[in-house]
Amino acid sequence: MSNHHDTGYKELFSYPELVRQLIEGFAPPEVAAMMDFATLTDHSGSYITPLFGEKFEDKVWSVEVKWDGTRQRVFVYLLLEFQSTVDHRLPIRMLHYVACFYDHLIKTHVTTARKGMPPTDPVVLYNGSKQWTAREDIYRMIRPEPPGFMRVYQPHLRYYLVNESAFSEEELAERDTPLSGIFEVEKASKDVDALQEAVQHLAARIRAHPEKARLDEVITRWLKRHLKRLGAEAEKALEQVNSLVEDNAMLAENLQTWAEKERQKGEAVGLQKGRQEGRQENARETAINLLALGLLDDDQIAQTTGLSLDEVKALRSEQPH
CB 184: neighbour CB atoms within 10 A? Predict the structure, then answer.
């Protein structure tokens, strides 16, 4: 189960505004068009899954949808998948989670087996850097594919994948929501200058949103958690910032200071690396000269130059005979 930094995301998706932005901005448009987002209701909880022997606390929301003149409540099952490697069991897990959730609905008297189960909309949100290679329908895991008369008896459950890394900067900018700003910050985290810019864009999008007070509070907390994972200096940059909107000037100044320290650190590391490479090259040249003189054995040359014995032997093998 995902156990990296999904905790902050679970808080983000406890807010209907961000659930709506996820569906409107990143799910198929025909799905969002059916939904009455004013009816979003949080049904999240902690359920024991016997198959995997774990608790899962992913987000479950219901929303009323309308098709063919009929209103129906659909459950949006949001699985937050933030593992360092892709879990190829995910289609099995998703099938199991949905089955456990249906069982929960029966046990809590939301419905009965006779009445039937409500539709679900399984969504997987993935923010890893590695390419997503897990099957998106459990049926695709069945190999070899059975003959036609058996296919109807095989399990089917497809989830919709929202892969953050698959969206370009331009695509995220087009969506122009606080959530797309969060995704931009995630994607920019390895580049200090890009992260600076992404955080400023995020603050501007929060400021322009009708629910800016609520979103500012929760996204500021998320950003502090996010920067904490990037190191002590990054965490310090937001230490005194309690609002991305109200403390914008302080935020910009602190991020600029952090960026400058990171650049200085990088320059120092580069300088140190250059010195080490220079010393190494000098040692190699000295060893080559000593080998040419033929006065010392390999052990003595290694002790004199600081090179390893293997390095000296390799240099000797390269010398003309």
Answer: 24
**Matching residue, tokens 């024991």:** 48
Angle at 38 between CA 246 and CA 59, to 5 degrees: 75
pLDDT digits (tens, 9 = 90+) for 142-184: 999 999 999 999 999 999 999 998 999 899 999 999 999 999 9
Distance CA(304)–CA(157), nearest Å, equals: 68
pTM: 0.74
pLDDT of residue 61: 93
Token reading at 42:
């949080």
Identify the top-confidence range among 206-215, 256-265, 267-276: 206-215
Contact (Cβ atoms closer than 8 angstroms) between residue 219 and residue 178 = yes
Q: What is the CA 255 to chain-centroid distance, rounded?
A: 22
Beta bridge partners of 35: 65
Supply the pLDDT for residue 4: 43
Q: What are phi and psi of 211, to 5 degrees?
A: -100, 40
- List the chain domain ranges: 1-166, 275-318
Strands (E), the chain: 35-42, 47-49, 54-56, 59-67, 70-81, 120-126, 160-163
Dmax of the chain from CA atoms? Answer: 97
Measured distance CA(90)–CA(140) in Å, rounded: 12
* CA angle 96–164–198, rounded 5-degree value: 145
Residue among 266, 265, 258, 302 nearest 284 (CA): 302
Query: What is the band of 125 on the pLDDT scale with cuts at 50, 70, 90?
Result: very high
Of 64, 79, 15, 69, nearest in space to 42 by CA: 15
Cis status, amide bond into 144, omega within 30 of 0: yes
